[in-house]
Structure formats: structure tokens, C-alpha cells
Write a structure and sequence with these properties.
Elements lengths: L19 E4 L15 H5 L2 H7 L3 E4 L3 E2 L11 E5 L6 H13 L3 E6 L9 H7 L11 E2 L19 E4 L4 E4 L14 H16 L4 E4 L23 H4 L5 H13 L5 E4 L6 H8 L8 E4 L1 H6 L13 H12 L6 E3 L9 H5 L5 H12 L7 E3 L20 H12 L6 H11 L36 H5 L5 H14 L1 H5 L1 E5 L6 E8 L2 E8 L5 E2 L11 E5 L12 E2 L4 E5 L1
Parallel strand pairs: 1-2, 1-13, 2-5, 5-9, 9-10, 10-11, 11-12
Antiparallel strand pairs: 3-4, 6-8, 7-8, 14-15, 15-16, 16-20, 17-19, 18-20
Helix pairs in contact: 5-7, 12-16
């Protein structure tokens, strides 16, 4: 940290000062022409990450998997899927990143496995020691044990003819949930986690980690809930016990980073999991959009949203001092951030505004691949173009229920919200298939790749890419952006999102005109007479913000 020295009581840590970049391996870079991204493709871009200035690479699952959910259904935790390469390729990636002082974290998926995992195969045969590795329940083959719903839609139970019982799956039916009540399950998982840590990785992103604990007896869920049963399987009765044990048996005593994916949690929950008296986890994502949706119409909500609502949900976490957070605007499970949070008509301006927002928040920011060039949502014309099992299942259920006659009736919802928007191949150049592959890509490339690609961005020093690079460096140089307090200004304003980041005598003011109309900044609670613009996404920002007009999607950071 160069701008200010931070006092010891701030509890400094490398992962607090880091910027994380998420790679979705299947869609990042293909080197063997099979249309699927691979580990050598990530290694080949090691200098790209270094030039951008990121500190940590999070790569999605590359484990052996039948790909019912694109790798989040793991068949063998200690093997690399053939699509991605082999363990030697993985070792070369780790070495290439570490040579550039970039750390590597991987996905840890321990709520469920694939139904092709050896443990499930043994459990369905009721082999000794494996009988209770999963959630098995007796019952009529025609009547699930309770009314719980899968997060992907439909019942959360599937009847297994071989064992003659129902098994629980909170996601796809090929992703049976592990039974964490069984000590042998936990012991096997801890051994696997330590095996990867011993190989030299720098931590894990913990997938769906607050789903591990299910109540005895599997009581029915609220029939009027947007997701029946969720009150029982999110943040279940023994979740803190399990997470503390996971920490103590694996991460404790190691200089590693853990970031938790947790749905349906509040700021208070985050502190219970990640605070100083929590379960030992370093941070958890705040999914602002999900919190806003929980107050509206759920998974297929319209993208219409109000800025005051965003600020209210955001500040409830940003101003919570007890837990470190992991801000993100997009990831492999959400639509493109420019299309959802910004405005494609102002693609460059809104992409750089979003970058300013993300990289000046409290916490460890996570950038998703393609955000640094302003990638946008694709346009899907038929269900045949959709790979995402969540989207496909929801569309098929809507048709079966008579809520839609066909894809055309849900086209708008899919094109607003499908996870495949984030999974279209990375756009490297204007060459065929955006330079992603020499073969046929596993998912079609977005039509805008001739204009939106890395090669053209690197050729233009005023591009979104350079803005990200410079802003990442700015964050590295400014202690207030890492360890400073966050204070929201103008909470009810429907155009401006503004806040200060303050540490000791150093203060920064962030002003974002989050709209497509010019607006005048007026905020009597902050003195700006001596303000100096230090970051801006327009060439000529207001020299002093008070009383000045900000153009559509104009973003500026001022030193106070």
C-alpha cells in the first residue's frame, strides 16, 4: 500500500488487497480445436492476467465430470476432465501464475457430487460404510418425501429404482446431495481438500456452501414460498458446526483465501459466517441482484430496477464492519453486467461506470471474464441454442404446466436472465469464432464479437480494458479503497450513486451518474471545494463536483 500506511488494528491480509478474476474454463480459450476451452488455453493467457493487474485467478471446475451442470457435478475430485487437459497441464498453469505472483483458487463443490461418483454408486448399492453418504428416504415411488423444490425447478427428490428409495438433489437430478450428518463423508471431503491445498493452490471459492445442513425428518416447506423448502435447507440447523469443522480440518494454519457462495443470507448472516467470531471463512459474495429479486418476482424477474433499492441493499453490507465481503456484478451464473446493470446503448460509458463502482467498494472485488471489454448478453432464438440446464428445465416446466406454448412465449425472459449469457465464448479478436477456437464452439459466440473483442480493445488506449487496468492499479495504490470506511451519500437519489471511502485523514469521493440523462450533483453533506478528480470515464470530468452536471453514465473519483 503506497498512499497511506495502514495501522495494525486493520488486520491486513493479502486477500483483502487483491482483485480476483474469474475464468469460466469451458468458454475462455481453446487450444486444441475441439470447441471447448482448456487449461493450456488459460496458461497461454498468463501474461494477459498479469498485464491487467489482477492478483488472483479463480477458475471454475475442471474436475472429471459428466457435465450435467457444466462441471459442478463432480465424478472424481482428484482428476482433470479430458476436455480441459490433464494434471500436468494444471501443474503448468499453477506454475505460470505463481511465476507472475498471481494466486490460484479453485471451486470447492461439496454440497453434492455427480450421480456417477464412486461414492454414490456404492451408496445406491448400500455397500458397507457408504449406506448414508447421501440423503436416502423411504416412500411411495409415486410420491416424493416432501414438497421441497429444486433450485433448478421441479421436485428436489428423485426415486432410485436400484436402491428403492428417494434421494435428495437441490440442483439437477444428476447432482445428489451429500449427507454431511455422516462423519465418514466429512472425513473424505477434508482429505480431498487437504490434498489440493498440499498441491499448492491458494484457496477455494466455496460453491453453495450454506446448503450443507438439512434438518432431520425433512419437514415440508412453506407451500406459498417462491422456492418451497428453502427455509429448511438454506442456513440449516448444523451449518455453523460444519463450516467451523471444515475450516479447522483444512484451512486453519494455511495462508489461503476462502470466498463463500451463499444464497439467501443477510448482512448479519455474513458476519456470523465470516466475521471475527464466525466460522473461519474469509469472505462471502453479496449478490445484490438476488437480494433485490427476493423482494420482487424471483428468478424470472424483469430487469427493471430502481437505483435507490440497489443502494439500500448494497449499503446494508458495505456499512457492516464485522464481515469482509466479495463484491461482484456478474459471474458464470448471471447475465452480463453491462446488459443488466448498465445500458447497451451506452456500452463503453456504463461498462466503465460499473468498473468504477466495483473497484471502489469495500471488500475484495471479483471481475468476471469479459467484463474488462464490456461483453454483453447474446440473443437466443430457440431452446436448441441454450445449454444451461437451469434455463432449459425452467422453460420445459413452463411449457409442461401450460404457462407457455413454446420458446417464443418465454424468449424475453430467457434473453434477460439465462446463465448462458455469461458462458458465451470469450471474444479475443474479430477472427472467426472470436479467436476462441479453430473448431466449432460448444456455445455460439455473441454476434457483436467483430466490434467487442480483446484485440481491438488493446489497440485503443481509451478502451474499457485500459480503464480496468488503470483502475485496478489505482485500487492497489489507495489504502482507503481497501481498508477505508464506506459512507453512502444521497440514498434516495434516483440518478446518482455516490459515497466516500475514508481512512484516517485520507478520503475519496465516488460520484456515479447511473442514468442515461444528464444530472446535477448536489450533496451538502460533503465538502468538495478542494476536490481533485483522480479517476474518470470521460476525458474532462467536472473539476469540482458540487453543483456540476454529470453526463450519462459518467463516473469520477475525487480526492478530498
Amino acid at each position: 500500500m503506497t498512499q497511506n500506511e495502514t495501522p495494525n488494528e486493520l488486520d491486513e491480509a493479502w486477500w483483502k488487497e487483491a482483485v480476483v478474476y474469474e475464468v469460466y474454463p469451458r468458454s475462455f480459450n481453446d487450444t486444441d480445436g475441439d470447441g471447448v476451452g482448456d487449461i493450456p488455453g488459460i496458461t497461454a493467457k498468463a501474461d494477459y492476467f498479469d498485464d491487467l493487474g489482477v492478483d488472483v485467478l479463480w477458475i471454475g471446475p475442471v474436475y472429471d465430470s459428466p457435465n450435467a451442470d457444466n462441471g459442478y457435478d463432480i465424478r472424481d475430485y482428484r482428476a482433470i476432465h479430458d476436455d480441459f487437459g490433464d494434471m500436468d497441464d494444471w501443474e503448468q498453469l499453477l506454475s505460470a501464475l505463481h511465476d507472475r505472483d498471481i494466486r490460484l483458487i479453485m471451486d470447492l463443490v461439496v454440497n453434492h457430487t455427480s450421480d456417477e461418483h464412486e461414492w454414490f454408486q456404492r451408496s445406491r448399492r448400500q455397500e458397507a460404510g457408504y449406506e448414508d453418504y447421501y440423503h436416502w428416504v423411504d416412500g411411495d415411488p409415486d410420491e416424493p418425501p416432501n414438497n421441497w423444490e429444486s433450485i433448478f425447478g421441479g421436485p428436489a427428490w428423485t426415486y432410485d429404482e436400484e436402491r428403492g428409495q428417494w434421494y435428495l438433489h437441490l440442483f439437477h437430478e444428476k447432482q445428489p446431495d451429500l449427507n454431511w450428518r455422516a462423519p465418514a463423508v466429512r472425513e473424505d471431503l477434508y482429505e480431498m481438500v487437504n490434498w489440493w491445498l498440499d498441491k499448492g493452490i491458494d484457496g477455494f471459492r466455496l460453491d453453495a456452501i450454506n446448503l450443507l445442513s438439512k434438518p432431520d425428518g425433512y419437514p415440508d416447506g412453506d407451500p406459498d414460498s417462491d422456492l418451497r423448502g428453502n427455509e429448511h435447507y438454506f442456513n440449516g440447523p448444523r451449518i455453523h458446526e460444519y463450516l467451523r469443522e471444515l475450516h479447522d480440518e483444512t484451512f486453519a494454519g494455511r495462508d489461503v483465501m476462502t470466498v463463500a457462495e451463499m444464497g439467501r443470507i443477510t448482512a448479519a448472516d455474513a458476519e456470523a459466517y465470516c466475521g471475527p467470531d464466525g466460522d473461519g471463512l474469509d469472505m462471502t459474495f453479496q449478490f445484490v441482484r438476488d437480494e433485490m429479486e427476493s423482494e420482487s418476482d424471483g428468478r424470472w424477474a424483469s430487469p427493471d430496477w430502481e437505483l435507490p433499492d440497489l443502494k439500500r441493499v448494497l449499503s446494508s453490507w458495505q456499512q457492516t464492519t464485522g464481515a469482509w465481503v466479495a463484491p461482484c456484478l456478474g459471474n458464470h451464473d448471471q447475465p452480463r453486467s453491462v446488459s443488466w446493470w448498465g445500458d447497451e446503448s451506452y456500452r463503453v460509458e456504463s461498462a466503465t461506470l460499473l468498473a468504477t463502482f466495483l473497484l471502489t467498494l469495500r471488500g475484495t472485488p471479483h471481475v468476471y471474464q469479459g467484463e474488462e471489454i464490456g461483453m454483453t448478453n447474446a440473443e437466443f432464438d430457440s431452446l436448441d441454442e441454450i445449454d444451461d440446464p437451469d434455463t432449459r428445465q425452467r422453460v420445459e416446466l413452463a411449457i409442461e404446466a401450460g404457462e407457455a406454448a413454446g420458446f417464443d412465449d418465454v424468449r424475453d425472459a430467457v434473453n434477460e436472465d439465462s446463465r448462458d449469457h455469461a458462458r458465451t465464448p470469450m471474444q479475443w479478436s474479430a477472427d472467426e469464432h472470436a479467436g476462441f477456437t479453430d473448431g466449432e464452439p460448444w456455445l455460439r459466440v455473441n454476434d457483436d464479437y467483430p466490434e467487442v473483442n480483446v484485440e481491438s480493445a488493446l489497440a485503443d488506449e481509451s478502451s474499457i480494458w485500459y480503464y480496468y487496468r488503470d483502475l485496478i492499479q489505482f485500487r492497489h495504490d489507495e489504502s482507503p479503497l481497501v481498508y477505508g470506511d464506506f459512507d453512502l451519500l444521497l440514498p434516495d437519489h434516483d440518478q446518482f450513486c455516490a459515497y466516500t471511502r475514508t481512512l484516517d485523514n485520507a478520503a475519496l469521493l465516488v460520484v456515479l451518474n447511473w442514468s442515461d440523462a444528464t444530472a446535477t450533483f448536489e450533496c451538502g453533506s460533503v465538502e468538495t471545494a478542494d476536490a481533485e478528480p483522480v479517476v474518470a470515464n470521460y476525458d474532462d470530468p467536472p473539476a469540482e463536483p458540487q453543483g456540476c452536471e454529470f453526463r450519462p453514465y459518467e463516473a469520477a473519483v475525487y480526492r478530498l
